[in-house]
Specification:
This protein is mainly α and 222 residues long. Helix content is 79%, strand content 0%. It has a single domain, classed as Orthogonal Bundle (MetI-like fold).
């Protein structure tokens, strides 16, 4: 049992690096998209909404396969864009890109929904002070993001769970080593240990997110 656990833990750095990189990048991307969605220009909002529909309406596994296997169908990328080809031929980068784009789509919905839920009084107060839209968003956005933390914490956990699909494109993360061990020993306890590793990671993340949420919303308890 201990040998199984030590082998599975070899994939932990890949799982954690994918999770952290995907969460941070998706969060930054989603903040930008949610702000753009407040625009009144259709040529800005329509493409963003189309992107959200595409990535929330299709399975992450399909997106992962399209990103990893899709560019290989076009020889001109390999011949004319060697830098791009080196990135798209990297399993880690493709998994990271798929997780980021998928998570950013869901996170944009969360953040934009939080912006829309800000009481009208706050918008009106900023307008009464003569603030323009950018100045208003600087005031309103931090409040909205704090209110969105509860929903966003679930998305963070979904990203960690989503990394388990990276093994389908040859990445040796925790699930990749799980498949390696199962291919050799066919032992049910390997799956239990794998589940326990993800359970511990997500449990710690849940605690951290709850602490961040309590600290961020401390002003409401004063």
């Amino acid at each position: 049992m201990m040998d199984y656990l030590l082998t599975l833990l070899k994939g932990l750095p890949v799982t954690l690096s994918l999770s952290v990189a995907g969460i941070i990048t998706a969060c930054i991307f989603a903040i930008g998209l949610s702000l753009l969605l407040t625009s009144n220009r259709w040529y800005i909002t329509k493409p963003i909404k189309a992107y959200i529909i595409a990535f929330t309406g299709t399975p992450l596994l399909v997106q992962l396969f399209l990103i990893y296997y899709g560019p290989a169908q076009f020889s001109f990328i390999k011949d004319n864009l060697p830098t791009l080809w080196s990135l798209l031929s990297s399993p880690w980068f493709c998994a990271y890109l798929a997780l980021t784009l998928n998570s950013a789509a869901y996170t944009t919905q969360i953040f934009y929904g939080a912006l829309k839920a800000v009481p009208n009084g706050q918008w009106q107060a900023c307008a009464a002070l003569g603030m323009n839209k950018i100045q208003t968003l600087k005031i309103v956005l931090p409040y909205a993001l704090k209110r969105a933390l509860s929903s966003y914490s679930n998305e963070v956990i979904f990203v960690v769970k989503g990394t388990a699909l990276a093994s389908t494109i040859t990445l040796m993360d925790v699930m990749g080593y799980n498949q390696f061990l199962n291919g050799r020993y066919y032992d049910f306890s390997i799956l239990i240990l794998t589940g326990c590793i993800y359970l511990v990671i997500n449990g710690l993340l849940s605690v951290i997110m709850r602490l961040i949420e309590r600290r961020a919303l401390r002003f409401e308890r004063i």
